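Render Hypoxanthine phosphoribosyltransferase in 3D.
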Amino acid sequence: MDNDIAKVLYSQEDIKNVCQKLGKEITKDYAGKTPIIVSVLKGAIFFTTDVVREIDLNTEMDFIDVSSYHGGVASSGEVDLVTDMGSDVAGRDILIIEDIVDTGRTLKYIVDLMMQRSANSVKVCTLMDKPTGRVLKIDADYVGFTVPDEFVVGYGLDYKELYRNLPYVGVLKPEIYE
C-alpha cells in the first residue's frame, strides 16, 4: 500500500497529537454534559475511537452511515442515508465526528437531520477540513488539519474501500485512480 502513496501528509504522531488537543477542547466545551458522539461510518471510525479516548467525561456513542462518493474520487452531489443511527437525539447535545469535510454536502445532511430530530445542539469535529472543495456553507467546530486539494487516503479514508488501514494520512498517487 505504501507504494501507492505519493507523500505522507500526517504521520501517526501528528494524528495522535491532534486527537489529544481536540479531546481536551471537547472535554472543556462539554463539561457537565453527556453528549452523544455520532461517528460517520466508515471513514471516521479510527479518528472517533482515538478522539473519544481523549475526552474526559461521560459520552454516549452512535453511528451513522451516509454516502456521497459511491466509490469514486469526487462527490456525486447526492447524499444517501445508508444506515441510520439508533439513538433518540431529541433534547440532546450531539457531536458529529467526521473524517474529512470536503464539499460539505454530507455534513450539512447530517447536521440538518439532527436538527430535524430536535437535537439540543449539534457540533462537528473533523480530522481534516478541505475548504477548497466546499460547495455548501458549513464549517466544523473542531478541526484537526486543513488539507490541500489532493486525494487523501489512510486512517479511515479510502479509495474503493482500500487504504483505510494505513496508520497515517497520505496523498494517493494519481495513476492509481485515473
